[in-house]
């Protein structure tokens, strides 16, 4: 029998704030080094580089189609928390460039640190019954239904994003970005297990 407790609204609120802040910091690190990542965040970064438009706007808009699946398959509470998390993430990524700047940012260090901070942030969100939308919703749904790890679902989508990036970015940028994405997905695949921790 699970020892997991139902989170209070205050605990959920701090989980969403901390999780989205960590992932927003990871995006800021990636952007500072002109890198990308996987998932919808990676696609949003890639589109922002080639278009000059805001990452936050792309991230918010690209997540909209996935809320239908979340509502139908994962419930209203999960969908509402995820919508709030995506909104916070979009807001934080717009604010951080005005608060933190980098004089020097090694791309390998940026990639690894972005993977670590994003992994920790996503785990916080997952454990409070939320995600950052998109592939996270699909990954959590497949994991709950089939046992197929959410991290591996994200890795497959990441491969598609990186193949596209090969046509648009320098190869060194793509390789450094891949390092960060691998770190992130290893953290998720290793640590996100419902038999250890079940959030409601």
Description:
Helices cover 74% and strands 0% of the residues. The chain has one domain (9-191). The longest helix is centred in the first third of the chain and has 24 residues, at 9-32. The protein contains nine helices and no strands. The protein starts with 8 loop residues before the first helix and ends in a 9-residue tail after the last helix. Helix 7 (135-146) packs antiparallel against helix 8. It is globular. With 200 residues, the chain is mainly α. The mean pLDDT is 87. The protein has helices at 9-32, 39-51, 55-63, 67-74, 76-99, 107-126, 135-146, 150-166, 171-191. The chain crosses the membrane at residues 15-36, 43-68, 74-96, 108-126, 155-188. InterPro entries: UPF0750_membrane, YitT. It is found in: Cell membrane.
Task: State the main characteristics.
single chain, 200 residues, mainly alpha, 9 helices, globular
SSE order, as H and E? HHHHHHHHH
The overall average pLDDT, rounded, is 87
Percentage of residues in strands: under 5%
Sheet having the most strands: none
Enumerate the spans where pLDDT stays under 50 for 5 or more consecutive residues: none
How many helices? The count is 9
Radius of gyration: 16 Å
Count of extended strands: 0
Number of domains: 1
Q: Structural class of the secondary elements?
A: mainly alpha
N/C terminus separation = 15 Å
Approximate shape: globular
Q: What level of helicity do the residues show?
A: over 70%
